[in-house]
Structure formats: structure tokens, C-alpha cells
Design brief:
With 284 residues, this protein is an alpha+beta fold. The protein has six helices and ten strands. The protein has two domains: 130 residues, Alpha-Beta Barrel (N-terminal domain of MutM-like DNA repair proteins); 125 residues, Orthogonal Bundle (Helicase, Ruva Protein, domain 3), CATH 1.10.8.50. It is 24% helix and 19% strand. Helix 5 crosses helix 6. The longest helix has 20 residues. The structure holds a DNA duplex (16 and 16 nucleotides).
DNA sequence: CCTGCCGCCTGCGCGC
DNA sequence: TGCGCGCAGGCGGCAG
């Protein structure tokens, strides 16, 4: 889905409804879903059968569930992936891609993914930090995230601030929505060259990222439609709190100027040109 | 190395 | 109605 708050909502659901349960069997219904698992669908299913989920962890937008074997089930939801916990006998979802059945006969864990950008894999020695996400930077809600390190990395970059916020090797968990929301809160334009940002500006951006993520988390994340739901299929309510994302043409909540949408990386960047004046030297 | 672009998918809403 | 287009919360791979 989803960005950090939505993935964290899912993680909490998995912790509650899946941890401690033993897997009877797993099945894969679309080959693309396990394309990153080296052993293919058979290896994936074999690595899960009989194992027990021990925990539910997250870094940025990645989720992983350590198993009692020392491996971990690693999930990335991509643009449209959902992890839901539903009764065993409930009808197959249209885009059901994989499922896990439990030995206790209770609700199943299902991976539903319309666009198949998401993926699942069993990562060896994934109990602590899966090897495949080693290149992902800590997310801003982790205690180990170092604001000073982030500032220095930004200072060396030659790109725009929004592109940098979306770069998961600099900071993880930030996506298109929360990048725009945090920049609006800090009154900085998305094309501001990173090397011109002061240390204080960078710290203020990080504080805004944390604020907007915490606020979203408190109400169950952002759901524009039925694609973005928690493990029980319930929507979050943060959409009604968005200040710029998706509000093209509507008045800025601070100054009333119509919110502008600019094409950006085959997607969109939303901003208020009065609150967030475009820098003379813009980068994107 | 670093930066930025393209492709991967399905579905929806819009204008014609 | 139908069709084509643009758009959608992401990221890996690769070219320059």
C-alpha cells in the first residue's frame, strides 16, 4: 500500500492475529507474488509448512514475520497489496495471490494484490533484519534513526528534497502522500535542492514527517478507497486530514491559495505555491 | 559512484 | 456504449 503508517497498522494486526500460530500449509496463486523468492513457489511453500510465526516487525514499508525456523516471511505490499486475516471458508478474493492456513483451523492469512507490484518471500536468517532489506535506511520512527546522519547525506545529494524523501536508502517509510504533507507543513517546495537545506530545515522536515505519520497512525492510516485497509478490512480515516495531497484546485488550509498539482516522476507533487514558493534553482 | 527514467501490473474515471 | 488516455499510496534495474 501504502506508506509507513498504513504498513504499521497492518503490522499491529498481524501481531495480534497471527503471532504464535502454527502454519499448516501455504499456497501461491500467482507466480509474480513470489518472484523474489529464490526457490520459487514450491520452495516458498515448503519453507512455511509446519513453522510458527514468532513476531511481526517492520522497517519503513517492509514487513517481516520471523519464524521458529530462523527464517522470516518478508512482505512488501507495493502499490496495492493487502494482508488480511479472514475465516477459512470465506470466498476467495478476486486478486487473491497467496494464503496461509493455520493448524488451529482459525482465520487464514491472505495476500491480496490487484497490481502484483507487491511480493512475498521467505528470507533465510531473517529473524533480526532480513538480508534483502539491508539497503533500506532506518525509518524516522525508529530510535536508531540519526537526524544528523540524514542531514549530512542530504547535503551530499544533488537532487530535490521530495525525491530524496522518497529515496528509501536515505530514509524509509516516506511515500508520495506523507512527503507532500510534511513539506507543506514545513513550507518548503518539493523541488528545493537538497544541498541548499540548512541543518535546521532538515530537522524541521523530519519533525514534520514524524508528526504527520503519528497523526495518521492514530486514526488507522490513510484510505482513499477499499484498496487500503487493515487486516480486518477496515479503512483508516486520515484522508480527511490531508492538507495538500490530492487537493489540486482546492484552497490551501493556511492561506486559501488553490493547491497546485505538478507532474513529478510519472506521478504528482502537490503544493501551495504561496506557502511553498518555488526555489529559483529547482531540482527534481 | 550518482542521478533519473522506464517498466512492471490492473482498474477506474474521464472526455470524446 | 465504447475506447483511449491518464492516473493511482512503489521500487528494481539500468543507462548515461
Amino acid at each position: 500500500m501504502p506508506e509507513l503508517p498504513e504498513v504499521e497498522v497492518i503490522r499491529r494486526g498481524l501481531e495480534r492475529f497471527v503471532c504464535g500460530r502454527t502454519i499448516a500449509s501455504a499456497s501461491v496463486h500467482h507466480p509474480r507474488t513470489v518472484r523474489r523468492h529464490l526457490g520459487g513457489a514450491d520452495g516458498f511453500v515448503g519453507a512455511l509448512a509446519g513453522r510458527r510465526f514468532e513476531a511481526a516487525r517492520r522497517r519503513g514499508k517492509y514487513l517481516w514475520l520471523p519464524l521458529d525456523s530462523g527464517d522470516a516471511l518478508l512482505a512488501h505490499l507495493g502499490m496495492s497489496g493487502q494482508l488480511v486475516v479472514v475465516p477459512q471458508d470465506s470466498a476467495a478474493e478476486k486478486h487473491l495471490r497467496a494464503r496461509v492456513t493455520f493448524a488451529d483451523g482459525g482465520p487464514q492469512l491472505r495476500f491480496v494484490d490487484q497490481r502484483t507490484f507487491g511480493n512475498l518471500m521467505v528470507d533465510p536468517r531473517g529473524a533480526t533484519l532480513p538480508a534483502l532489506i539491508a539497503h533500506i535506511a532506518p525509518d524516522p520512527l525508529e530510535p536508531c534513526f540519526d537526524d544528523e546522519v540524514f542531514y549530512r547525506a542530504l547535503h551530499r545529494r544533488r537532487t530535490g528534497i521530495k525525491r530524496a524523501l522518497l529515496d528509501q536508502s536515505l530514509v524509509s517509510g516516506v511515500g508520495n502522500i506523507y512527503a507532500d504533507e510534511a513539506l507543506w507543513r514545513t513550507r518548503l517546495h518539493w523541488a528545493r535542492p537538497t544541498e541548499t537545506l540548512t541543518r535546521n530545515e532538515v530537522f524541521v522536515i523530519l519533525a514534520a514527517v514524524r508528526e504527520v505519520m503519528a497523526a495518521a497512525l492514530a486514526v488507522g492510516g490513510t484510505s482513499f478507497d477499499s484498496l487500503y485497509v487493515n487486516v480486518n478490512g477496515e479503512s483508516g480515516y486520515f484522508e480527511r486530514s490531508l492538507d495538500v495531497y490530492g487537493r489540486a484546485g482546492q484552497p490551501c488550509r493556511r492561506c486559501g491559495t488553490p493547491i497546485r498539482r505538478d507532474p513529478f516522476m510519472n506521478r504528482s507533487a502537490y503544493s501551495c505555491l504561496r506557502c511553498q514558493p518555488r526555489p529559483r534553482r529547482a531540482r527534481w
